[in-house]
Amino acid sequence: MATTTIQEPARDLPVRGEYEVVVLGGGPAGIAAATAAAMHGRKVLLVERYGFLGGMGTAAGVTNFCGLHANVHGEIKQVVRGVAGELLSRIDRLGGLNAPHVVFGKIAAQAYDTAAYKCATDDLLLGHGAGILFHAFGAGVIMDADDSIRALIVETKSGRQAVIGQIFIDCSGDGDLAAWAGAPFEHGDGAGGMLYPTMMFRVNGVDPAVAGDAWKTIPNLMDEAERRGVKFPRKGAVVRPQKNPIEWRVNVTQMKHSDGRALDGTKADDLSVGEIEGRRQAAAFFEFLKREAPGFGNAYIVDTPPQLGIRETRRVSGHYQLSRDDVLNCASFPDTIGVNGWPIEKHVAGDVEWLWPAIPQSRGFNHLPYRMLLPRDVSNLLVAGRCASMTHEGQSAARVSGACFVMGQAAGTAAHLALSGNSALDQIPIEALQKLLEKDGAYLGRDVDS
Ligand SMILES: Cc1cc2nc3c(=O)[nH]c(=O)nc-3n(C[C@H](O)[C@H](O)[C@H](O)COP(=O)(O)OP(=O)(O)OC[C@H]3O[C@@H](n4cnc5c(N)ncnc54)[C@H](O)[C@@H]3O)c2cc1C
């Protein structure tokens, strides 16, 4: 009979250190969480599996911030500031930030260069005194009592180690830490579906004068090619220039099983299949661009990123779940910790579907309540970013970078307040949290009615 399990001998783990706040994952949420806690003097360690920060923004080659802006009664305004604002300034000072560009005539997004993002985030965290442990893969937890985490276990080149903490913030995007600690979570849409993963890629050597506004014409070229029998992974291709207009990013691939279901970013085998299939789809789409898109004749693929882009896996079930109606109706919450102005962007089979709040009748953003960061059943844990407490459709909006920065800053600040008041995370005074967030430059969206 085949061996299906094998026993690992018990062993003592070296303790890497003891921290007031331990953050798992260095994407937008983790960057903001670690910065916010450290800026208030907390001893913080951010644990990240790669050798750089940025999460999907760098590791999956996203290279574009969405959700920093909202369409407020017809006027596009930046609504995410605070730690994100300081990060933008740092990226800009390194020459790596585009001016915001308008999307569908309704909202703005802002592209950046990954090299500048990586350097800017190193400096941001270290400048505020946060510690960073790179090349450390979170692998499990050691629980203290039933409902509290004592240590995060990490696998590193120096071996397996324990990181002891008072408060943990799960910014892994996949809810890894929360799941290990026993917090309840949902996975995808509950019917085996999830937002589809995408392998991003960047193209260099584009002739900008010839390409012009090719992002407007490429979808039409794709429609024509489809009529000739060319197959594409999905509609709604995003092909747009970076800071240097000879370089363009391409967001068009879509990873699925043979039965059409999205690959699952928490499954090792799915990830392996997706990396290979992603590069295959990228190469195939590039052939189309080179052949048919104006200005792409002498271009080449300059980068496929370190990993497949994962939009959605686990969403931790917290004290409140942000929903589709909250996004579309621009919901207000008394415990607002910031806002989301990005619409619902559903990556469905073969396409991208968009659902918007009323423009210009509405204020174009919803509040993000503190309760969506508070998981059930684990007392010293907060969850921020794309794995926070949202429904499948709520997450289709508030998973983008802007809202993840907001959630991260609030989680780091809440951890600081809980430590200073010696109070439980679900008992911190909300007004004190809101006051401190505003003092630190965050926008809570309380000045405009929905
Ligand atoms: C293809 C694609 C295109 C997108 N386009 C845009 C866009 O244009 N604009 C936009 O704003 N958003 C976009 N998004 C969404 C956005 O990038 C993510 O939702 C956002 O980065 C989520 O931030 P986060 O901090 O929650 O998690 P992530 O960005 O996923 O970061 C999680 C971090 O945790 C680390 N990590 C995970 N598990 C472990 C572990 N066990 N141990 C150690 N480290 C771990 C990861 O390496 C990563 O650095 C896109 C996403 C994809 C996949």
Low-confidence runs: none
The number of E-state strands comes to 22
Q: List cofactors, ions and other ligands.
A: flavin-adenine dinucleotide
- CA distance, first residue to last residue: 63 Å
- In helices, the fraction of residues equals 25-40%
How many helical elements?
12
Globally, the shape reads globular
Structural class, by secondary structure, is alpha+beta
Largest sheet: 7 strands, mixed
| Percent of residues in β-strands | 15-25%
The overall average pLDDT, rounded, is: 97
Radius of gyration: 21 Å
Question: Can you walk me through this structure?
Answer:
By secondary structure, the chain is an alpha+beta fold. It has helices spanning about 30-40, 55-60, 85-95, 115-125, 175-180, 210, 215-225, 270-290, 325-330, 390-400, 400-420, 430-440, and strands at about 15-25, 45, 65, 70, 75-80, 100-105, 105-110, 130-135, 135-145, 150-155, 160-170, 185, 200-205, 240, 250, 300-305, 315, 335-340, 345-350, 350-355, 365-370, 380-385. The strands form seven sheets. Strands 1, 2, 8, 9, 10, 11 and 22 form a seven-stranded mixed β-sheet that branches. A four-stranded antiparallel β-sheet has the order 14-15-13-16. A three-stranded antiparallel β-sheet has the order 3-7-6, with no helix packed on it. α1 (about 30-40) runs parallel beside α11, α3 crosses α4 and α11 (about 400-420) crosses α12 (about 430-440). The termini are far apart. The mean pLDDT is about 95. Bound molecules: flavin-adenine dinucleotide. The site of flavin-adenine dinucleotide has 40 residues, from α1, α2, β3, β9 and α11.
